[in-house]
Known about the structure:
Strand order of the largest sheet: 3-2-1-4-5-6-7
Order of helices and strands: EHEHEHEHEHEHHHEH
Radius of gyration: 18 Å
Largest sheet: 7 strands, parallel
Helix content: 40-55%
Number of strands: 7
Mean pLDDT: 93
Low-confidence stretches: none
Structural class: alpha/beta
Amino acid sequence: MNRLINKTAIVTSSTKGIGLAAAKAFVVEGADVYLAVRNKELGDEIAKELTKLGPGTAKAVLWQAYDFDSYEPMVDEVIRDAGKIDILVNNFGGTNPKIDRDIISTDYKEFVKYLDVNVNSVFLTSNLVLNKSMVERKCGSIINIGSIAGITNDYKQCAYGVSKSGIIHLTKMIAVQTGRYNIRCNVVCPGMTATDAVTNNLTEEYQNQFAKATPLIRMATPEEIAAAITYFASDESAFTTGQVLSVEGGYSLAPGTYGDDIGAKAIKNN
């Protein structure tokens, strides 16, 4: 508790899922959290509820991932209000599994669309926060949300996987290029996580395929991903930068036959 007292944090796309879980964890740990969201009204409602959890506070600021012109006003508003930015969580990541398929079936324009917004949302927000606060103050922690899709290969979601791989490399570049300012940058790569996006966009069969291929034989919860994010945000990781932390229940470690040989039987027995 209280690991983030007197810290100011921005968490993008934080009205649900992993972003919301991270914002909640930050408030509980004492941070003043700015929810960078496209739906300001919903963000305001959520911020009020989060603030009740204390000792930190929450406030919503307008930020639209696909509108790059909205990025700088958001960062400026946070600095005017709080005077500084200590922590940035680049949580946004979009795709449409019905459109984002393999290289044979994916339309080029759709590929570029998701590659553009997923990588640039990290680059541009980080660039602004670094230049407007962290470099001058010579401190800060940037946590990017990657994905197991950026580490392992899949038979679909070409744009999403390539963009998340790009975010992983961008994280390491930021770490090397800003370390001399006492700024850290790390990336958390979730596996299949029980969010609304997963439930609404992926079939139960597809979800079960991941679960049975995972040694822990289940999906992660958003809170479990938030715990890793909070670690990187706190001074507990003060000498840790450029690291890739996969929070995926061992999915990338299991052999190809694991799901059929062990995972399926375990799910059936449960």
